[in-house]
């Protein structure tokens, strides 16, 4: 079995060595070939020098590819096209892997005979979490920490509405030939952290009848970035998350809409607004922030739907609104 590990990277020269060092410690199963493809997505730092240094060390079957067109989807798609393996695995440049990660992928494909696997991803804190941040209870926050933990047993996707993330995922290469590549209008672009290119791709596979399996033995660790554990970042994150969810929205027959927005989004926004105001009255700071993020997320969904098909007289206004909302989400 031949694995191609595709790693898109953008201005992460200081973090990339951690991932490469962890890959150099992998235990490679017998009858397994592998290669690592670093796709430099137009970095302006010393990324190329870092990769060249590791290539010269000859510890890894490493290749360097440059992709000028900005966007993680563009970089991943370039890596897929350049890959030689029958299975393409994906990692992010701020991750590290368990020494049995590749062996676990091999075991999973042998055992399940599936189209793809999603591994378990655990957060790696390098600093104390802020006191207002919690991942437990009714006001738990998502966004600063990238995790994918569905337990210790294998499961078939979709689990609820969860699908694997491109930070720790492997797919048979012929799936890309059959179902297409990652959408380049979704996913991170440069320093702008957008979402759901991986979710959208996996949804295509499942819709096509392919089997995707959650396999926790394929274990990776994702570094928590300090600049993301801020309230400003989380507000913008949830607004963009809402826009991404709207892009994935599949309308149902008889769905009622106002200006291309499903009517129930307005009801959801109103309910969240009431909860937010009640939390303000009760002076529950965690609840206030939680419902503030909820409003940002639903607001992002509404605005994305408006942008997709705005009424003619309001088209310029909506474009102005989205520009202002992007700025305001990071300031308020």
Integer average pLDDT: 87
Q: Structural class of the helix and strand makeup?
A: alpha/beta
CATH class of the largest domain: Alpha Beta
Largest sheet: 9 strands, mixed
Q: What's the gyration radius in Å?
A: 21 Å
Determine the number of helices (DSSP H or I, runs of at least 4 residues).
Answer: 10
- SSE order, one letter for each helix or strand: EHEHEHEEHEEEHHEHEEHHH
Overall shape: it is globular
Features:
41% helix; globular; Spore Coat Polysaccharide Biosynthesis Protein SpsA, Chain A; two-stranded antiparallel ribbon; 11 strands; disordered C terminus; 332 residues; 10 helices
Structure description:
This protein has 332 residues and is an alpha/beta fold. The chain has two domains: 2-225, Spore Coat Polysaccharide Biosynthesis Protein SpsA, Chain A (Alpha-Beta Complex), CATH 3.90.550; 231-329. Helices cover 41% and strands 18% of the residues. The protein has ten helices and eleven strands. The protein has helices spanning 16-24, 47-57, 72-82, 101-112, 173-179, 197-207, 231-247, 263-282, 285-308, 315-329, and strands at residues 2-9, 33-40, 62-66, 87-91, 95-97, 116-124, 155-156, 168-172, 212-223, 257-258, 261-262. Strands 1, 2, 3, 4, 5, 6, 7, 8 and 9 form a nine-stranded mixed β-sheet that branches. Strands 10-11 form a two-stranded antiparallel ribbon. Strand 1 (2-9), helix 1 (16-24) and strand 2 form a beta-alpha-beta unit. The protein is globular and about 60 Å long. Mean pLDDT is 87; it is low at 324-332.
